[in-house]
Amino acid sequence: MTDATLTLPAPAKLNRLLHIVGRRSDGYHELQTLFQFLDHGDTLHLRRREDGELRLTPELPGVAREENLIMRAARLLQTESGCRLGADLRLEKRLPLGGGLGGGSSDAATALLGLDALWGLGLSLERLAELGLSLGADVPVFVHGHAAWGEGVGERLTPVVLDTPWFVVIHPGVAVSTPGVFGADELTRHTPPITMARALQGGAPSWRNDCEATVRALYPPVAEALDWLSARAPTRLTGTGACVFARLARESDADRLLGEIAGRWQAFKARGLNRSPLHDVLGR
After folding, report:
1. In a designed cystine with 254, which of 16, 25, 84, 166 is the match (CB 3.0 to 4.6 A)?
2. What pLDDT shows up at residue 171?
3. Which entry of 13, 42, 210, 253 is annotated as an active-site residue?
4. What is the mean pLDDT of the chain?
5. Does the active-site annotation cover 13?
6. Is 18 helix (H, G, I), strand (E, B) or coil?
7. Domains of the chain by range and CATH?
8. Helix 103-118 with 125-133: angle, nearest 10 deg
9. Crossing angle for the helix pair 125-133 and 69-81, nearest 10 degrees?
């Protein structure tokens, strides 16, 4: 790593718990959730340019370059800071689109923190999270870089310490539309709010995802993966899906489960983390 280049992780997240406690007048939903990072995700390579240009490679299928959250984050940071530097940005994409793992939001957060370092801006995490929120509700948790209890649309964050088991994550081969799930008539929207302390006291066996029943109904491949995996280990949907995850005590258990999955679905194993690996690399 030099002053002019950076290679940074953009980790996945899981929603260990997701409750929908109301719907706002603007159509957004009020949530309560527990975010946790994984030691698996995308990688973003950044090289500083002196000419102010921003170049991103490669293009993602179905995503226009200027609509990519990495480019939007980079242009927003340029505009808000008045910085005249640019960057070459190259993404190694591992996380599936529409998977509920926060890939686009994590990429945006890594771009914000990475360019802040590359350009020597010195902005606070609070300011970078504020910019990130304008890009997406999940961006701030990746900017702050700690497992968190989230409320509001997921942007009001309180750091927490969660257990750090192994997870096996299955991608059922479909992309779930988040607006489609949140717009579904049958979605549970009035789960009674609970305190963070009560959620943590109940622990993982009591946690659930209010989107799961709706996603099951709308996306049969997700339902199939949930049924198969839950017969073998405690299993849940993350976010609005499509990915589903099983919690396992030992890495050997995760390896054994991956062996059963081989050839059936795309899947990976990962360790749960309370601190983002992005912050470890940057020393934030």
Report:
1. 166
2. 98
3. 13
4. 95
5. yes
6. strand
7. 5-160 (3.30.230.10), 166-273 (3.30.70.890)
8. 140
9. 120
